[in-house]
Amino acid sequence: PVDMHVAALAALGARIAIENGLVVASAPNGLTGTRIVLPSPSVGATETAMMAATTAKGETEILNAAREPEVADLAACLNAMGARIDGAGTHRILIAGETSWRPARHDIIPDRIEAGTYAIAAAITGGQLELTHARLEHMASVVQLLEATGVSVWPGDRGLIVSRDRPLKAADLTTEPYPGL
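^ thats the sequence. predicted structure below, dont judge the formating
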């Protein structure tokens, strides 16, 4: 669903239209900083609002923002390119608009969801797997769940090591927005 993306752009002053089944946003007079309260944490909506706000006149505050590492990483990239974004990775992000853009180099963080999928595959099939470049601080909830089921996870020289050499145990889990599972 794109409703939160559309609402965030509209709050910044974009004109929204549906044309031939496509959402078309325009801002002939530019965007204006504002306060955006997301109804629930959404990575895509947070990133859409954050990127658009870098071009707006004035300051934008995003509340109930997604806290995923990918949001913080995008903010780090945008900041390296000249944006002024504070608080990415928390529920409250502040963006100073009217960015003066410049070239930048940015290394993208490893995909924690992909790494978690492989970690679970290793747990199911047994044996040991090294997840090259996987970051423990981004995968704490998955690691906690794996350890509760009897799987060992520890930092290696190049990432995380996942190992199961005994039968799995049942574990309770609750899903929730990041940093939860």
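The longest strand covers residues 127-132.
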